[in-house]
Design goal:
By secondary structure, the chain is mainly alpha-helical. The chain has one domain. It has helices spanning 3-12, 17-40.
Length: 41
């Protein structure tokens, strides 16, 4: 899920905004970590 999608959703569900943003950020970090591992191999 894109961070921008989370922002749009947050207007409907403000309480979930931080969790949604944090989840998107975490997924992005995991993806970058996997790319780094592939480069090292």
């Amino acid at each position: 899920m894109e961070i921008s999608d989370c922002v749009i959703e947050s207007f409907n569900q403000n309480i979930r905004f931080f969790g949604c943003w944090r989840f998107a950020f975490f997924q992005q970090a995991m993806h970058k970590g996997k790319e780094r591992q592939q480069v090292q191999q």
